[in-house]
Design goal:
globular, 38% helix, 13 helices, alpha/beta, disordered C terminus, binds phosphoric acid mono(formamide)ester
């Protein structure tokens, strides 16, 4: 298993950071802060175990103790793209730990006037930000921000690259709903098959899950039409296969993760949505016939009537609301991890 620093070097080599404006070469990069989370590949199995454990502890902690953990620490949310779940849950998470939060969005800030990611990050740091949570349409942007500021940066979704906190909250949801209580290890999800269906090509959620879940013993089946699921996707990790027939993919699954068709990223791609719906929609007839016991997941936002029907989204197999709820616990753990010290409660040993 690579160390954190080795993983980060491999991320640096793999991802070509893209920013609205390039970083001037005169600015020497600084080391990535150890509290950052840029990719699931930054995390060892032990890191995953400790984040899940911390999420459990924080969720059940009394609010007074929890509020003292990061009292008045400053967390900036820098969102260059729209978000409902990720932004709100990171904000609630930071506030639940006592931190002060400030939101900077592209539409109402100097980003609109052309300020670069680097200058925005340095400005936030000068204003006292101790941690930046970044959503960006540019793959690799969190890596660039972490290098430019030296602050802990949490990737809240970067382009078509990754959404690591989503993969962690999805993992927590699966563990809870499948009743998996064992030690977090390479065998945690042995015997569990997760079918991920839809626009895999553009999905940072699919990418983070496909990179994380097989490391914990799961089998991942990717499903979708060729334009949205290139054969190369099977190379995201071990134990990943491609099944174009959705019914067959459903029959193998204990967990079905449906993905939105990302119309905003489909430019130039010929996709017949009627045909797509006929072949790949999760509807009640199909789920009853081919996956009557599987958990139904969706990272959101859902387009009801396209990739999923309301009957399935709101049905008894759906755990979509639990995914959203788990976002707060996981993101509390990530913000706490980013900002360091733990309050001694007598229960925890500290990081
Ligand atoms: N899952 C997710 O990233 O949702 P939002 O875009 O609403 O944050």
């Amino acid at each position: 298993m690579p160390t954190l620093n080795e993983s980060r070097k491999s991320v640096a080599a793999r991802v070509k950071p893209v920013s609205p404006l390039p970083v001037p070469s005169s600015v020497p990069p600084v080391a990535i802060h150890a509290g950052s989370l840029l990719s699931v590949s930054d995390l060892s199995i032990e890191d995953v175990a400790s984040i899940l454990k911390l999420a459990d502890e924080l969720e059940s902690e009394d609010t007074v103790t929890r509020d003292a953990r990061l009292f008045k620490r400053r967390v900036s949310l820098l969102f260059y793209e729209s978000s409902t779940r990720t932004r709100t849950s990171f904000e609630l998470a930071a506030k639940a730990l006592g931190a002060d939060t400030s939101l900077v969005s592209a539409q109402s800030s100097s980003i609109e006037k052309g300020e670069s990611l680097k200058d925005t990050g340095i400005t936030l740091r000068a204003l006292g930000a101790e941690c930046i949570i970044l959503r960006s349409p540019f793959s690799g942007a969190p890596y660039l921000l972490a290098q430019a500021t030296g602050l802990p940066v949490l990737n809240a979704g970067d382009g078509m690259h990754e959404h690591p906190s989503q993969a962690l909250l999805d993992l927590r949801t699966m563990k809870q709903k499948l009743g998996i209580t064992g030690k977090v290890s390479e065998k945690l999800l042995e015997g569990v098959t997760i079918t991920i269906c839809g626009d895999i090509f553009h999905s940072r959620v699919a990418r983070s899950n496909a990179m994380l879940l097989p490391r914990l013993g799961a089998r991942v089946v990717l499903c979708g039409p060729a334009p949205l699921l290139p054969e190369a996707a099977a190379g995201l990790g071990t134990n990943i296969s491609i099944e174009r027939d959705f019914d067959k993919a459903l029959e193998q699954a204990q967990v079905v993760m449906m993905l939105r068709i990302q119309k905003e990223r489909l430019a130039g791609m010929a996709l017949d949505l009627g045909e797509y719906t006929a072949r790949y929609q999760a509807n009640s007839e199909r789920i009853a016939a081919h996956a009557p016991k599987a958990l139904i997941m969706h990272p959101g936002p859902m387009i009801r009537g396209l990739e999923i029907t309301s009957e399935v989204a709101d049905g008894p197999q759906s755990v979509i609301e639990e995914q959203v709820r788990n976002g707060v616990a996981i993101r509390m753990a990530l913000v706490q991890r980013a900002l360091g010290e733990r309050v001694k409660t007598g229960k925890g040993k500290g990081r």
